[in-house]
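The protein record minuted underneath.
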Amino acid sequence: MEHNEDAALNAARYKMKQDSEPLPVDEYAQATGMAPVEKQKTPLQLHAEDEAWEVANSVLDEAFARGDFDNLALAGQKIDHITSNDDPDWWLKSMMRREQLTGLGPPALTLRVEDEQMEQILDRLPTERAVREHIEDFNARIIEARRQLLGGPPVITALRDSTAEVLGWQQRRAEKPSPVEENAPPKRRWWRR
């Protein structure tokens, strides 16, 4: 039986070679003297691709029939970045969310976000001088954003007083226990060693 199938397949391949029309020529590539962008495929290669798709589809159909795709995680749930077609920048927003990119956008918005997180940012700074320098840089960026005539949302972020911010930084630092005190093991007396 296999011999007959092989013979039929070989006969079909031979007939395709004999009856095949030449594939269209890339006229632009010939006119410009450039090589074609894609190599032309023979009818046998095209037939092999069709066979591969048929095999893949049959394998998928069998998997569906067995129930391999039943009860998958997230089945039936909305995937925002794929199902929302109304936003033309869905792919950019999903990449920003996935890669956790921040600080992008108009200065008015980035300054608002930084203003909301200012206490956490200042609490990570080691010295009063660093706090003052950060506040001065923040105020300079606010003034520069107000001078820009590029459009976008208005800059409504208020300037910050560096002295008041330093005092707040000192108070928060005095209230919070130092990390050495939190993680230090209890001291053992020499007679209990």
